[in-house]
């Protein structure tokens, strides 16, 4: 589960327990501004590596869960990059565009292909597979 | 006989350390000068060359063989009929070669590739 899904799931869980729970309260619990959380949840912003770790800690994630979220976040960034108009099927280019380290781009690529979320369909283009 | 083993690949949680170990121990050369940033290992003269790829989360290091095949789809279909699972479905690499990774019925991952 990437950060966006993790935040959405957690926010919905808290809302079920308390229908008056607010995004601002959620943001306070994460020590973030509410607009930042809103952008993370609606997918218009990706968290930096350190921010991802801080949020994971605030959510009480275990080390394996945090590692898993980091991997899925990397995968989400690779998917984002694959949709850019100037996309290049080049992991260094993806690393540069996403800020994800090259080895983690490789890991993300493996994860996405293994989970049938991305197809390396030609030497120069990759296709997102819709669930 | 067709379908030769043409490459080995170390899957490592710390690919940089694994690569450094191999180059220091055997004097092999490593380059990442390819679109994947893949650590290609030039092993000793007359031997089979290999590579190092970062392991997925929670996977311990192991060595995987690459078998060169002419038709990935045909081999995948035959492997599945023999009880294998598809780990990585056919992918077209940036250089144009195709590859896939299978798991044999005993649980051993094996890669197939059209690369020379």
Structural description of this entry:
The complex is a heterodimer of chains A (131) and B (116). With 131 residues, chain A is mostly helical. Chain A folds into two domains: 1-61, 434 Repressor (Amino-terminal Domain); 74-131, Arc Repressor Mutant, subunit A (Orthogonal Bundle). In chain A, 63% of the residues lie in helices and 5% in strands. Chain A has helices at 3-17, 23-29, 34-42, 49-58, 63-82, 91-98, 102-114; strands at 118-120, 126-128. Chain A has a two-stranded antiparallel sheet with strand order 1-2. In chain A, a hairpin with a 5-residue loop joins strand 1 (118-120) and strand 2 (126-128). In chain A, helix 1 crosses helix 3 (34-42), helix 5 crosses helix 6 and helix 5 crosses helix 7. Chain A is elongated. With 116 residues, chain B is an alpha+beta fold. Chain B has a single domain, classed as 2,3-Dihydroxybiphenyl 1,2-Dioxygenase, domain 1 (Roll), CATH 3.10.180.10. Chain B is built from two helices and eight strands. Chain B has helices at residues 15-26, 72-81; strands at residues 5-12, 29-31, 39-42, 50-54, 62-68, 85-92, 98-103, 109-113. In chain B, strands 2-3-4-1-5-8-7-6 form an eight-stranded mixed beta sheet, covered by helices on one side.
Architecture blueprint of SSEs:
The complex is a heterodimer of chains A (131) and B (116).
Chain A lengths: L2 H15 L5 H7 L4 H9 L6 H10 L4 H20 L8 H8 L3 H13 L3 E3 L5 E3 L3
Antiparallel strand pairs in A: 1-2
Helix pairs in contact in A: 1-3, 2-3, 4-5, 5-6, 5-7, 6-7
Chain B lengths: L4 E8 L2 H12 L2 E3 L7 E4 L7 E5 L7 E7 L3 H10 L3 E8 L5 E6 L5 E5 L3
Parallel strand pairs in B: 1-4, 5-8
Antiparallel strand pairs in B: 1-5, 2-3, 3-4, 6-7, 7-8
């Amino acid at each position: 589960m990437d950060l966006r899904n993790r935040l959405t799931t957690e926010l919905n869980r808290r809302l079920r327990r308390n229908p008056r729970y607010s995004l601002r309260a959620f943001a306070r619990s994460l020590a973030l501004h509410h607009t930042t959380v809103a952008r993370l949840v609606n997918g218009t912003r990706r968290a930096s590596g350190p921010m991802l770790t801080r949020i994971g800690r605030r959510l009480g994630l275990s080390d394996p869960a945090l590692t898993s979220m980091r991997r899925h976040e990397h995968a989400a960034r690779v998917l984002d990059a694959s949709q850019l108009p100037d996309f290049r099927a080049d992991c260094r280019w993806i690393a540069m565009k996403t800020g994800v380290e090259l080895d983690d781009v490789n890991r993300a690529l493996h994860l996405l292909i293994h989970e049938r979320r991305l197809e390396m369909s030609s030497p120069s283009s990759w296709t997102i597979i819709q669930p | 006989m067709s379908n030769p083993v043409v490459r080995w690949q170390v899957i490592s949680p710390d690919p940089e350390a694994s690569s450094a170990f191999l180059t220091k121990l055997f004097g092999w050369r490593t380059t990442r000068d390819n679109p994947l940033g893949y650590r290609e290992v030039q092993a000793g003269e007359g031997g089979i060359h290999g590579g190092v790829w970062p392991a997925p989360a929670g996977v311990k290091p192991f060595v995987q063989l690459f078998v060169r095949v002419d038709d990935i789809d045909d081999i995948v279909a035959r492997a599945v009929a023999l009880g294998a699972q598809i780990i990585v479905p056919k992918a077209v690499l940036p250089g144009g070669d195709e590859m896939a990774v299978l798991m044999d019925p005993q649980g051993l991952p094996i890669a197939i590739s059209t690369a020379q």
